[in-house]
């Protein structure tokens, strides 16, 4: 299966810059593989021929001008949209036909471009909901307050506090999520996604609305998360300093198609990419 | 840290305390002979309506879906309870035990009805549950209007036509179509009602503050995020809805066994809306509020008897005034200032949020 997958990829994706998986991950099975992924909305092809492999501990970037289809790709990977064409292989398993929550349990966690927190619940409760599938306790022991309820509640508390420590947010545990400042909401979303114990974390514009110092801090934290949890991270971002600073492989999307893949240096010098970005600027 | 958790616990304790104190006071008044017979007769219905309000608040406030046919579940529980007690009249002599069995059976059948409705409807987004429960309430009423159940030595007999077929066998008629159940022994007492309120309250509060409740509230707050966090939406919506339905079934059994006759027409659309009014007036998602609203609004028409013909007019005016009053920003601010003065404010905690936006008020 594994060799088959690799052969297929090299055969069907003859892009020279396809090997954006970093050295250390080359011989490992990719955590995620998208093959010929595409979706049409009515007559409009939003994403087409999206091929990508992400190594198990890679930090990958997905960039492109506005409306290129980046978020659509995230929605395709998490089955929010059913792909019209192509397959997504997550940890060697085809995700076709899975519900959104099943994809999450299979290993993809994500954050959203427009923050989606449980605003009426506290910060800690948000993280606890992230831990939902990690710590099991059925409804009846909850209602009857059986010992298993108290045991798991304590576990919920300990583990969510531990997770909040990543961003030094323990002191905010009892604040309502909706009352947090913008940056903290973004960080909380990442913590909640991490709580689901993913093997791939998708971050949709994690630095949006952050100032340069916050962005620098976020960069450090993303790296820290990767090292600590040994997971793959893929992010959509417009802030080039962040993308070029931490991504090991970058894919550039324009009009729903990948126009370039490679290391940050390769992308920066790729004439097609420069055209896509500068051309866009010229039109404005 | 301990602050909010302690606060939640304290808030729950206050709710329990209010219920217990109210019970003690009313019990005292009742034995002192101060309460009129009219009011005494309303004690059990009040308990039943409080249970209904808590139950509906689970669906509307915690699950965030609208149910316009909660009286339907009450009705299912009520008639199950009646039939069960009539069947057991000879074999189980203890009244309270029969009441308990009736309530449990009512809860089970109402839960089954909840599953049947919930499985197809809760997969959808939007107001479909409101539409379907509205229809369900009417359907149940019509089915019960045409159900005849008789009992003889060979067992239970059902008919959807008339009761002649059942009577011919020489048995007892339990359920007589639109005439409902006649000759039911009154089993419900105020004490039983009080215990049921405590049970329903405990179930509701414990459910809300557990892993399941958090998942349900997550779905209410943000469906897409809940799904992306790995929560099986349909499963948890169904859990909450079925729990709510079964609590309504319990309330129904308690209610029905307070009367010697009970007709299906009692549980119509008006009753569903009445319960919804309790929930909305008490505050959506606010369990304590719906308890108080249910108690006051059930007793209010009785209190307004002095106005005879204008009774319902005054009732409506009071409802409108309370709605206006509780949503008045000026009044809210005054209450907020008052709470701050006596040190109940949340602001102290919000201050710690890096000086960012507070959720105000």
Topology, pairings included?
The complex is a heterodimer of chains A (284) and B (361).
Chain A: H1 2-12, E1 32-41, E2 44-54, E3 59-63, H2 70-77, E4 85-90, E5 93-94, H3 100-106, E6 108-110, H4 123-130, H5 139-143, H6 147-164, H7 182-195, E7 200-204, H8 212-229, E8 232-236, H9 240-246, E9 249-254, E10 257-262, H10 264-268, H11 271-283
Parallel strand pairs in A: 3-8, 3-9, 6-7, 7-8
Antiparallel strand pairs in A: 1-2, 1-4, 4-5, 9-10
Helix pairs in contact in A: 4-6, 4-7
Chain B: H1 2-32, H2 37-62, H3 70-87, H4 95-121, H5 128-145, E1 148-152, E2 155-159, H6 164-168, E3 172-176, H7 190-208, H8 211-221, H9 223-228, H10 233-256, H11 269-282, H12 287-303, H13 311-326, H14 329-341, H15 347-350
Antiparallel strand pairs in B: 1-2, 1-3
Helix pairs in contact in B: 1-7, 2-7, 2-10, 2-11, 2-12, 3-4, 3-5, 3-10, 4-10, 7-10, 8-10, 11-12
- How many helices of chain B? The count is 15
| Strand portion of chain A | 15-25%
Rg of chain A computed from alpha carbons, rounded to a whole number of angstroms = 20 Å
Helix content range of chain A:
40-55%
Could you describe the largest sheet of chain A, including whether it forms a barrel? 6 strands, mixed
Low-confidence stretches of chain A: 1-17
Structural class of chain B, by secondary structure, is mainly alpha
CA-to-CA gap between the ends of chain A?
48 Å
CATH class of the largest domain in chain A: Alpha Beta
Helix content of chain B: 55-70%
* CATH architecture field of the largest domain in chain A: 3-Layer(aba) Sandwich
According to DSSP, the number of beta strands of chain B is 3
Strand order of the largest sheet of chain B: 2-1-3
Query: What is the terminal-to-terminal distance of chain B?
Result: 22 Å
Which two chains form the greatest contact, residue counts included?
Answer: A-B, 51 and 41 residues
Q: What series of H and E elements makes up the topology of chain B? A: HHHHHEEHEHHHHHHHHH
If strands are numbered along the chain, what order do they take across the biggest sheet of chain A?
6-7-8-3-9-10
């Amino acid at each position: 299966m594994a060799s088959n997958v690799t052969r297929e990829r090299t055969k069907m994706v003859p892009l020279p810059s396809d090997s954006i998986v970093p050295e250390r991950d080359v011989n490992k099975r990719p955590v995620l593989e998208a093959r010929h992924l595409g979706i049409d909305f009515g007559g409009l092809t939003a994403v087409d021929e999206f091929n990508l492999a992400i190594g198990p501990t890679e930090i990958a970037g997905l960039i492109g001008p506005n409306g290129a289809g980046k978020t659509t790709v995230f929605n395709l990977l998490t089955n929010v949209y059913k792909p019209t064409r192509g397959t997504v292989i997550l940890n060697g398993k085809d995700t076709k036909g899975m519900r959104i929550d099943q994809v999450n349990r299979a290993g993809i966690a994500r954050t959203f471009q427009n923050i989606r927190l449980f605003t009426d619940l506290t910060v800690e409760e948000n993280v606890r909901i992230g831990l939902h599938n990690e710590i099991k306790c059925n409804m009846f022991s909850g209602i009857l307050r059986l010992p298993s309820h108290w045991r798991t509640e304590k576990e919920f508390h300990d583990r969510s506090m531990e997770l909040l420590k990543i961003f030094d947010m323990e002191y905010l545990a009892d604040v309502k999520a909706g009352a947090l400042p913008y940056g903290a909401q973004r960080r909380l979303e990442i913590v909640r996604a991490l709580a689901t114990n993913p093997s791939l974390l998708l971050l949709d514009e994690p630095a949006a609305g952050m100032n340069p110092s916050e962005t620098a801090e976020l960069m450090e934290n993303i790296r820290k998360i990767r090292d600590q949890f040994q997971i793959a991270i893929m992010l959509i971002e417009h802030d080039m300093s962040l993308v070029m600073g931490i991504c090991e492989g970058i894919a550039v999307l324009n009009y729903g198609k990948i126009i370039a893949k490679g290391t940050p240096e390769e992308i920066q010098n790729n004439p097609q990419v420069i055209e896509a970005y500068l051309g866009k600027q010229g039109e404005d | 840290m301990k602050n909010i958790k302690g606060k939640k616990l304290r808030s729950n304790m206050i709710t329990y305390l209010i219920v217990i104190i109210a019970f003690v006071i009313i019990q005292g008044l009742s034995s002192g002979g101060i309460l009129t017979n009219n009011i005494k007769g309303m004690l059990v219905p009040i308990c039943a309506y409080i249970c209904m309000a808590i139950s509906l608040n689970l669906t509307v406030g915690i699950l965030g879906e609208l149910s316009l046919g909660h009286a339907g579940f009450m009705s299912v529980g009520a008639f199950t309870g009646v039939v069960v007690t009539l069947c057991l009249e000879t074999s189980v002599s203890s009244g309270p035990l029969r009441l308990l069995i009736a309530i449990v059976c009512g809860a089970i059948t109402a839960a089954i009805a909840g599953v049947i409705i919930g499985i197809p409807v809760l997969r959808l987004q939007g107001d479909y549950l409101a539409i379907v429960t509205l229809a369900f309430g009417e359907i149940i009423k019509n089915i019960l209007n045409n159900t005849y159940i008789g009992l003889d030595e060979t067992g239970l007999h059902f008919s959807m036509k008339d009761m002649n077929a059942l009577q011919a066998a020489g048995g007892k008629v339990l359920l007589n179509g639109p005439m409902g159940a006649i000759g039911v022994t009154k089993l419900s007492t105020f004490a039983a009602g009080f215990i049921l309120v405590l049970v329903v309250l405990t179930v509701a509060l414990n459910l809300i503050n557990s892993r399941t409740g958090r998942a349900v509230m997550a779905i209410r707050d943000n469906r897409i995020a809940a799904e992306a966090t790995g929560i099986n939406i349909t499963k948890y919506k169904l859990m909450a809805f079925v729990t709510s339905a079964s609590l309504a079934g319990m309330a129904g059994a308690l209610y029905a066994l307070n009367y010697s006759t009970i007709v299906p027409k009692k549980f119509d659309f008006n009753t569903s809306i009445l319960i919804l009014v309790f929930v909305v007036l008490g505050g959506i998602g606010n369990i304590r509020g719906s308890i108080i609203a249910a108690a006051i609004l059930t007793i209010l028409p009785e209190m307004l008897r002095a106005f005879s013909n204008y009774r319902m007019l005054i009732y409506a005016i009071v409802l409108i005034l309370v709605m206006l009053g509780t949503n008045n920003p000026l009044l809210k601010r005054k209450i907020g200032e008052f709470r701050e003065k006596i040190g109940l404010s949340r602001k102290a905690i919000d201050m710690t949020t890096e000086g960012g936006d507070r959720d105000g008020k």
